[in-house]
Amino acid sequence: MNLEHVKLSQLRALVAVAECGNFGEAGLQLSVSQSAVSHAIAALEQELGVVLLSRGRHGATLTPVGERVLIHAHNILRSLDELGKEANLAKGLQGGAVRIASFRSVATHVLPSVIAVFRERFPAIGIVLNEFPGCVAVEQDLRDGRADIGITLLPTSEEFRSWEILRDEYLVLIPPNYQVIHEPLTWEDLSTYPLILSPEGDSCRELFLHHLTALGKSLKPTYEVREDSTIVSMIRQGLGVGIIPRLAAEPIPVGIQKRSLPNPLERIIGVAILAEALQSPAVYAFLDTLKEMSQRGQLTAA
Questions:
Q1: Could you give phi then psi for residue 67, rounded to 5 degrees?
Q2: Domain of 123, in residue numbers
Q3: Residue 139 main-chain phi, psi, to 5 deg
């Protein structure tokens, strides 16, 4: 038995299976696959040389030795948590606040899950979230020192350090009673429908217009509407077809038809901080949480 080969991920898997009673729900709790949990438990049993769980069609239950090992697993993970708290205390993560500026669709559908994870890790740090209709105000908040972190569209100017966190596809939203002429849609199809777009100057519309120009295409809107929710409501009432990023359209009502553009388009959503600003440990901790969830593909619409 070589205890140096025992991994924390294996102990977390044991705790999760003991709490959930089966490998599938344990995997959901840990954000890994069921097979990953099964492999972790099997590896832990091999290292210890004992059977920790009794498997059956109704789930998994701890063996007597598994119950005793579980107590130690809890103690080890609890000690690790205390170790982290001591380190956070030394780094100044036991107070203060992180100020975030974001455009509305990300603030509504993405950031709440990030904030929940961050607050679980750093409950003493407050969050101030300002949401805006577009990116211009977000970046101005950063310049004026009213925000530490901005969620904006990329690329940004050189005054910011920025990096991508997710991509958001533009969708064609079609009323329930409209007949789609071709699959997939063509630009000629789109020109036959009444079109609903955001007004001139809106960052989402500007990106779409640049896309059209690069393709040598043009579309004239029948309606220009600022609020995303109003656009979706008008589509649901059969007033026209809308072209809108997925996050801006969420939640999309049942019955509305969703299609990709004939030439797909995504907006690149990123996080930005002032390049020359000094940031607190709390800000870097939030950026680390955001980066980690982005890499795991966990930044999706809530």
A1: -65, -40
A2: 97-166+268-295
A3: -70, -30
Give Cα separations from 133 to 74, 125, 194, 207, 276 (angstroms).
45, 26, 24, 15, 26
Whether 275 is covered by a domain: the verdict is yes
Contact 168, 247 (CB under 8 A): yes
- DSSP helix/strand/coil, 185: coil
pTM for the model stands at 0.74
HSE-up (13 A, CA, CB side) for residue 301: 13
Whole-number pLDDT of residue 301:
65
Contact 283, 273 (CB under 8 A): yes
Query: Cα(99)–Cα(116) distance, rounded to whole angstroms?
Result: 15
**CATH code for position 214:** 3.40.190.10
Cα 33 to Cα 36: distance, rounded to the nearest angstrom: 5
The closest of 268, 269, 284, 270 to 148, measured between CA atoms, is 284
What stretch of H or E contains 259?
Answer: strand 257-260
Token reading at 277: 């600003």
Domain count, the chain: 3
What is the band of 82 on the pLDDT scale with cuts at 50, 70, 90?
confident
**Per-residue model confidence (pLDDT) at position 85:** 77
pLDDT tens sequence across 20-57? 999 999 999 998 999 999 999 999 999 999 999 998 88
Nearest-angstrom CA–CA distance, 223 and 238: 13
Start-to-end CA span in the chain (Å): 44
pLDDT digits (tens, 9 = 90+) for 214-241: 999 999 999 999 999 999 999 999 999 9
Share of the chain above pLDDT 70, in %: 99
